[in-house]
């Protein structure tokens, strides 16, 4: 009868305890593992640190055959395999760094059923005779890690991931599991389609991080020295605690690490320009020291599991809300209180967009990435509780206010600035998208020096004289963050241009409202 059936998760729990030393499954791990043990397809969306790996590792170990894990990051793969081996799990990886003898040994083990987990990269999977050889062995499961890479709606699209959809035909009857830490609803649908997981059960864990206190600050100026100084202040206020400072460039990371060291902080620079061995040494130091501060580019972080990181500071903002959530999520993995402070400025969004221009990619992908950058900046410069804004973006429509972010603790007064936004956009347009912000503000205020007839004759001339200079500057920054205006560098003489035509039109028509937080500087504006 049903009653006498053993708990299908009993041996899974036993494995979790014996191999990993964890007392219980947490979050959605148990139902995900149960689904995979039953041989069904799964898409699991769990936040960073949510424990995605055991979700496919345990079913791979318990089902007969080898669990094939497709992972895009060789470094991560190496670490995972090494850790599994030390825990007594029969795991191996096949990548370009593995020699011929080792390869034949791995295949022999796989054929004999002596291997639990086999890690491969997506390129490796489709190279040579890999697929043919895999067909000769018994597969327990196919896991696709970092599955958002398959989607051009994701923040980290990798064209070679697209081909993984073919696995559905190549290995019919082998259950597949896609896992990712970040997927908005659109990306999620795309993953299901591209990987042919139409019948998969989808598990989405909450992205709430209740122990994280988030805040963001507009940079006072575009000056690097000022930003560095602010970072030094922020880090000094947190002296004695371990943290990560993210920088947008290798130079920036080196410079800021030096400046922090000069201020007496045990800072360590880290970026992809360093030799692998050197990076290893620096990472080991960071992990070993209680109060070390890693000053790094995004090369740092993937697979780093330091539970007591107390703060993450972005000296330069990340590229998307997905990246933001992943990076701030490196703080407080032990569940104890942790903070994240993001510094951002108009030059940063210009930089983000410009960097996309310089990269070889499909135009459609570029536009998705540009929109993701704008959505990030709109959140940073917005007035909605930060975790709530991010979780809604991830599809958690019922996310509550966190109560502890800067915007919850000290809610800024909000103001409907749609009319001013219309005036500013119209001014940029009438001026022919040829001038920088100073000149546009002068035009709105009707105080352009030696104004010529053509300009004084425009309907937008002086149309904003009732609003204070600093409030105009503030609003123009906000329009840049929302992507309604774009700042074109124009060889060092930046000019303002209109953003996405559809979005600008919606503001003109009043269908899209522009709301700004009244910050101290803008609050001084006369009414
Ligand atoms: P992710 O890949 O989702 O970021 P990992 O699989 O690397 O997360 O797991 C993050 C950490 O959580 C690891 O140290 C892991 O051992 C730990 N962990 C996983 N499952 C559990 C559990 N059920 N109980 C306690 N710790 C767990
Ligand atoms: Zn909040």
From TrEMBL:
Keyword tags: ATP-binding, DNA damage, DNA recombination, DNA repair, DNA-binding, Helicase, Hydrolase, Isomerase, Metal-binding, Nucleotide-binding, Zinc
Keyword Metal-binding: yes
Pfam families in the record: DEAD, Helicase_C, HRDC, RecQ_Zn_bind, RQC
Positions of the Helicase ATP-binding domain: 33-201
EC numbers: 5.6.2.4
Cofactor(s) this protein cannot do without: Mg(2+); Zn(2+)
Reactions catalysed, as given in the entry: Couples ATP hydrolysis with the unwinding of duplex DNA by translocating in the 3'-5' direction
Enzyme class: isomerase
Domain Rhodanese, chain residue ranges per copy: 244-285
MF (Gene Ontology): helicase activity
Domain Helicase C-terminal: 226-376
Protein family: Belongs to the helicase family. RecQ subfamily.
Protein name (database record): DNA helicase RecQ
